[in-house]
Specification:
six-stranded antiparallel beta sheet, seven-stranded parallel beta sheet, single chain, alpha/beta, 32% helix
Length: 634
């Protein structure tokens, strides 16, 4: 292994050189040591023995490290780096390091410092309109936002180089996540950075709603002394309903339990043992509303949670219920809440978030209601939270751009698995199977189901592995159904948009045979057809080991053009095929036959060139062939 050194001093007996190491320069000192007649031997003071011949100042000289251990270490590092770059290229269109980052919202300086320390270039440009953002976003690999910037489909269509959008905070409703997935852009958030600050605000508002603290403060500032007007309730002994028991909801539960409240909750994703640990009685929503004295909301805004607190919901609640929302605007139907406050059904409420921010004029009556406490989206507005989310989003984005980790990515779950070198042969096999089934379906692919079994150095039956392999199969399939090269991130989303159903069914039904790993894909077509293709990795190469249920199937590694058909199992059955191919000057590289149980055989020919449509028509006219299909593999 050789690298280049630059002589920085012309002193022949003792000079200084620097060797490039990444983006940094490392200095060594070299001493002249008597050596053989071939020339002076220079030894590094650090102990590495390196032979080269001194020259004039500032000229390049060869650097050789004969030590075998050093060579092995350098070779391993070079191989790892090469593998990482090769795998990253499979789903990123440009370089992953030394990226250019745009921070379009106000964010703590620690964010910029972390990016720059990792070698990235950062621009902080805030207050941009959608059109202004569209004009410059093409130059950036990463985008950091808070809640002010709206990352719309129009912005992402202009972002030709964008790889990741980092939301410094939890909510991503200001980002068109489905369109980001369609474009192959990762979207991440920092759910842990503002957990404590948001939970703290929620508990503060629960206490404030119970004791009318803001209204009492305003009265005092107005020179009044109205003790009887602000009689409240104790929260100890009251029932608190926590809708959404994620990070923030559980911190609220912990603190409110310490305040003596009874906890009930709803969250389909919360494990029963976690609910038991925090003292939360998990109920259905229909059971929660009649029991709750206080309701605190901690869910994302989704179609299922939009207007969750509405007129019908409030009619099921206790008279005098109190409601706090520090989650997302739109979860509470604000018109229904105003009606509840006016009627007395709702004794008090506190809102930190609104359906539109800042709130429009039509919400003025609600905000000015004496029994409503309103704050201007302060959930993450603490010094600590601002630093936490800024640090977290920068660290997460650096890891993602370097291919090290994918913490916080919300729209794709298999990227960490895709970085594992041991998965690459299986990923390649998945794409090959996808290409084969897609071309055999003739553009009529309707559904796709994946099964896996076994592995090698890694278990390909894990959920993450199967999700990744399904995406690889879909990526291979879409190569022949869409224009352009689909990305690994976008492939599942694009397939869904095209009406292709895809799923994972579990283990391969019959894993018998000499194979240590199997990936099986079953498809249906829009015209009622069906097909199953099974593959396995031998060494580093993908092989097709079974198509449907043919006996004595000849395993092969797809390459070039594949011609596949069913022929009569008798002498001379394929002579007509060979004559047709010869007429079109198409050379047959390999020929394989697999017998069936009905006096027919499956013939697989690997050809050196594609088969024109006219030749396929002539093959069909032979009258002895069935299910003639071709597939091209790049």
């Amino acid at each position: 292994l050789e690298c280049t050194s630059y002589c920085l001093s012309s002193r022949p007996s003792h000079f200084k050189c620097s060797r490039a190491s990444g983006s940094r320069l490392r200095s060594c000192r070299w001493k002249n040591v008597p050596q053989a007649a071939s020339g002076p031997h220079w030894r590094c003071e650090r102990g590495r023995s390196c032979t080269f011949w001194p020259s004039e100042s500032s000229v390049q000289v060869p650097f050789r490290a004969p030590n075998l251990y050093i060579k092995m270490q350098l070779a391993q590092r070079f191989s790892a780096l090469t593998n990482r770059l090769v795998s990253r290229r499979s789903f990123h269109s440009s370089r992953a390091t030394l990226a250019k980052i745009l921070c379009s919202d106000q964010i703590d300086p620690v964010c910029v410092e972390i990016f720059e320390k990792n070698g990235h270039e950062v621009d902080s440009i805030t207050g941009l309109s959608e059109d202004e953002l569209c004009q410059i976003i093409h130059a950036y690999d990463g985008l950091v936002v808070r809640s002010a910037t709206k990352v719309t489909a129009k912005v992402m269509d202009a972002a030709t180089n964008l790889k990741v959008i980092g939301r410094a905070g939890v909510g991503i409703d200001n980002i068109d996540t489905p369109h980001a997935t369609r474009r192959g852009i990762m979207v991440m958030n920092t759910p842990g950075g503002n957990t404590v600050s948001t939970a703290q605000l929620a508990v503060s508002l629960i206490c404030s709603v119970a004791r009318s603290i803001p209204a009492a403060d305003i009265s005092m500032k107005a020179g009044k002394w109205e003790r009887k007007a602000f009689s409240g309730v104790e929260i100890s002994g009251k029932t608190l309903a926590i809708v959404g028991c994620g990070r923030i909801g559980l911190v609220v539960a912990k603190w409110c339990k310490a305040l003596g409240m009874r906890l009930i909750g709803f969250d389909p994703a919360l494990p029963p043992e976690t609910a038991q640990e925090y003292g939360i009685e998990m109920l259905s929503l229909e059971s929660i509303w009649p029991q709750a004295d206080f309701i605190t909301l901690h869910t994302p805004l989704t179609p299922d949670t939009k207007d969750l607190i509405n007129k019908e919901t409030l009619s099921k609640c206790k008279d005098g219920v109190r409601i706090v929302n520090c989650a997302r605007g739109g979860i509470v139907d604000e018109a229904a809440l105003l009606e509840g406050l006016q009627s007395g059904k709702v004794a008090g409420a506190a809102l930190d978030v609104y359906s539109a921010e800042p709130p429009p004029e039509e919400l003025r009556e609600l905000i000015e209601h004496p029994n409503l406490i309103s704050t201007p989206h302060l959930g993450a507005s603490t010094e600590e939270a601002q630093i936490n989310v800024a640090r977290d989003v920068a660290l997460q984005m650096c890891d993602t751009l370097m291919g090290r980790d994918y913490v916080g990515v919300v729209n794709v779950k298999f990227m960490s698995m895709a970085e594992k070198a041991v998965m690459r042969p299986f990923m390649k096999l998945g794409e090959v199977i996808g290409e084969l089934v897609s071309q055999c379906a003739g553009g009529n692919l309707n559904s796709l189901e994946l099964r896996t079994w076994g592995g090698r150095d890694i278990d390909i039956t894990s959920t993450a592995a199967r999700d990744l392999l399904k995406a690889c199969v879909l990526r291979g399939a879409l190569r022949h159904l869409t224009s352009g090269e689909p990305t690994l991130i976008a492939a599942p989303f694009l397939a869904g948009e095209m009406g292709i159903e895809s799923g994972v069914a579990g283990d391969v039904v019959d894993p018998s045979g000499p194979f240590g790993n199997l990936i099986s894909v079953s498809i249906t077509t829009k015209n009622g057809g069906a097909m199953t293709v099974t593959g396995s990795v031998f060494g580093e190469d993908p092989h097709i080991v079974q198509i449907n249920d043919h006996s004595s199937f000849p395993a092969f590694s797809p390459e070039g053009t594949l011609l596949m058909f069913s022929n009569e199992d008798k002498p001379g059955a394929v002579l007509g095929v060979l004559d047709t191919l010869r007429a079109y000057n198409i050379n047959v590289a390999t020929l394989r036959l697999s017998r069936q149980t009905d006096d027919r055989a499956l013939c697989l020919m690997t050809l050196d060139s594609a088969v024109p449509a006219q030749a396929l028509e002539q093959l069909d006219d032979l009258g002895t062939l069935k299910d003639i299909r071709t597939a091209n593999f790049s």
